[in-house]
Design a protein that fits this description.
162 residues, mainly beta, Jelly Rolls, globular, RmlC_Cupin_sf
Length: 162
């Protein structure tokens, strides 16, 4: 199956819709249990399927919860993290002797991050589990000017993911 056909199949089969940060997603789980957090009452945990393509990145954003990423198929992807130590890369995908990839990564709460597929003409299908659960009220997208002021050394990746 060609890459474009596989992407179209996954979008239809998993009922994926466009996500505001980029890519496509479908919520697969929202805990019935809720907890009180600083921003308000949140479900204990949420989970989504998330699909990115080589031409469709996940823009730099921040949420107020921890987010676990789990790789399923396609090309490895890079989760780009902006922290006090600058730009860091988490490689998510098939581990091999030739890469530093892992099938799971954690992005801690209140971290600025985005992601991109490593290979051209490809895609990556992952799941993301957020705890406390995801709420769009806790979601913040960033403009290029905001990030360049804070992380001038990362101008290239900031320009790509904003």
């Amino acid at each position: 199956m060609e890459v474009e056909q596989r992407i179209a199949f996954l979008v239809e089969k998993l009922q994926l819709t466009p996500h505001p940060e980029g890519g496509f997603y479908s919520e697969t789980y929202r805990s019935e249990i809720s907890i009180e957090t600083d921003p308000g009452n949140r479900n204990l945990t949420t989970a989504i399927y998330f699909l990115l393509t080589s031409d469709n990145v996940s823009k730099f954003h921040r949420i107020k919860s921890d987010e676990l990423w789990f790789f399923h198929e396609g090309s490895n992807l890079t989760v780009h993290v902006l922290r006090e130590h600058g730009h860091q890369k988490l490689s998510l995908g098939y581990p091999s002797p030739n890469n530093e990839s892992a099938p799971q990564h954690l992005v801690k709460a209140n971290t600025i991050f985005g992601s991109s597929v490593d290979e051209p003409n490809s895609y990556a299908l992952v799941s993301c589990v957020v705890s406390p659960g995801f709420d769009f009220a806790d979601f913040e997208l960033f403009a290029v000017d905001d990030l360049i002021q804070q992380f001038p050394e990362a101008i290239e990746i900031i320009s790509k993911l904003t």
